[in-house]
Amino acid sequence: MGLPRQVRFQGELVTTGIFKEPVQGSVKLRKLNLEGDKQADLKVHGGVDKAVYAYAGEHYDYWRQELPDMSLPWGMFGENFTTQGMFEESVNIGDQFKVGTANLIATQPRMPCYKLGVKFGSMDMIKRFLASGLTGVYFKVMKEGELEQGDEIKLIKKDENSVTVKDIVRIYTIDKDDIQTIERAIKIKDLPNGWRYHFIKQLEQVGKK
Question: What CATH number is associated with residue 55?
Answer without folding.
Answer: 2.40.33.20
